[in-house]
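Here is one chain, start to finish.
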Amino acid sequence: MAKTIFEELGGRYERQGDYLIPCLTVLAEEEQPIGTWGQRHLDYLKQYRKVTYTNLLTSGRLNAYLADIDKQAQERFERLIEDMKQAHGITEQLKAENALEWTGKLNNIRACAREIVNNEIIFV
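Its structure:
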């Protein structure tokens, strides 16, 4: 019997009753920690980009991809916060003088930065 393309490429079949089932395995990949940003992007991929998610998963690159997205998003988030703090004049002196106002302004900046990161990196 002639070999199939799958067999020519190194694949093999396993007999299950009357059927030959291909033996498929997912490539092992190095586990890297994935933070909040990576988890958000993973949920987005699963819900809206199923083909991309499946391709990354079956190629063994999903974890590395999500770790990279997480790192990029965290760095962008921190940069945005620092830039916005300087632009709005939020200093340690304000924190010492009026902690409640400082907290409100910083929370507003974090919310704005989170929206920007979500729109630029996570939900793309």
